[in-house]
Amino acid sequence: MRRVMSVAIVMILFVGLAYAGDGHELLEKIMKDYHKGKTSLVQKAVKGEASKEEIAKLSEAYHQMAKMKPPVGGQADWDKRVAALIAATDQLAAGTPGAGGALKKAVNCKACHKEHKPD
Ligand code: HEC
Question: Mutate which of 67, 109, 110 to test ligand 1's pocket (most atoms within 8 Å of Cβ)?
Fold first, then answer.
């Protein structure tokens, strides 16, 4: 039993470290895994086709983004954009009508890239 516990603890540490590591790499990963392409998870969520698990994953990614400094641009603007993403995924998770539209508005690729994506 103790062995199982310590393995579990090591695994938790590992996952924690992977997330706490280089925010830049994690951010690129989030973009690739959840945003990139017409059939991305976020597009599915906007259309109301994402499962509860998928919405939870998206929300977790946005909570990770909330702990980051943007690569470029102001922190206040970043925080506002990420807060809107979190609010929209919360609404989706709660099944609030119009949540997909709120997410669509919040996940404005161009606007955020213009402010915060390095060239
Ligand atoms: C809240 C801000 C924000 C929003 C919204 C956002 N992005 Fe990004 N995205 C970034 C930042 C910042 C980077 C630069 C990451 C880096 O280089 O560290 C980036 C980088 C990327 C990359 C390049 C990843 C790589 O491998 O370098 C892709 C692809 C991308 N975004 C797709 C999208 C798409 C598609 C959307 C809209 C559906 C979107 N993003 C919405 C902030 C955002």
Answer: 109
